[in-house]
Design a protein that fits this description.
By secondary structure, the chain is α/β, with parallel strands linked by helices. Helices cover 22% and strands 28% of the residues. This is Glucose-1-phosphate adenylyltransferase.
Amino acid sequence: MVEKRIQPLARDAMAYVLAGGRGSRLKELTDRRAKPAVYFGGKSRIIDFALSNALNSGIRRIGVATQYKAHSLIRHMQRGWNFFRPERNESFDILPASQRVSETQWYEGTADAVYQNIDIIEDYGVEYMVILAGDHVYKMDYEWMLQQHVDSGADVTIGCLEVPRMEAVGFGVMHVDKTDRIIDFVEKPANPPGIPDKPDFALASMGIYVFHTKFLIDALRRDAADPNSSKDFGKDIIPYIVKNGNAVAHRFGQSCVRSDFEHEPYWRDVGTIEAYWQANIDLTAIVPELDIYDKSWPIWTYAEISPPAKFVHDDEDRRGSATSSVVAGDCIISGATLHKSLLFTGVRANSYSKLEGAVVLPSVKVGRRAQLKNVVIDHGVVIPEGLVVGEDPELDAKRFRRTESGICLITQPMIDKLDL
């Protein structure tokens, strides 16, 4: 790994976060919000990871392109990311699809979401562009990737995960030579190409790209003029550069941020109910794979002013208690029992209720004697007294959104339909 320069390249870079996707595999969790706005980890939103990585890397110009049901995402960023100061050469732009290029044209693809804001990018006069997805959970110092981009002379540098070769069939896979120059880009291959130095592994795209700004703008304009293009980085821009230019892979292991407690590079696409539940529950482990307590790389977010969590009652069968759990502020565990659960801000769990393997979003009220196992409960849901979830698979599947492994997503409309 090359030594960091005295003058960080991040100072002359802009992070452009693509946050317009719905995330349909999260089902009802994205009925009212875009995937990047989905809650994660007790007090954050998913987008906070990409934004925090940019900020912690030293990038002080950030743009976020929004589109699908963006209100809660925009409100979150206005509340939690409003500390950038133009007099310090800092900027934070929220860029909704606003028909700026055409009165009938929304963002047609990821590349178009950047193309329609070229004038804003040019106004800042930055040397480098870091294009990010706003819907993944990971910690990464983009400065290392910027340095590799400059040192290699690449037209584009693409962030890549090393994954077991046959697990890469669902990704865009980079076929690289011994210098990590990309010689082919294959979308969801049945037989992924291995890495020359690790033939049992493949390099999967993370959807993170670094460009020189001028090169990117020229590429976007060329692509916009192509009537056959779908205006997408992964489908159009990147394959064109791989074929006609110099594309280089950047391995996530070289720039992932790890505390003393994190042993492996951590990256998750929490794009399904199953993956979302698992990544949140993983945080309840004694030593979780993702260290959100690392003060050297904080995950910035909107920090609500809230009172501390409280546990009350101490009778034999009515004791407010939690084991192997994460509990946010303003939660009151009133004679309820939690095990291996994660509660967001403002949850109320009432007497004799039991929660195990529960991911409970903000402002949920759990009624007395409810028994909830392996659930994700959406924001503001009121759980009726005595409701049992996690014991009868057939009944659960009729009432709620149940995954094959038995995780139940519970929303208020589902509760309203119950005949109790």
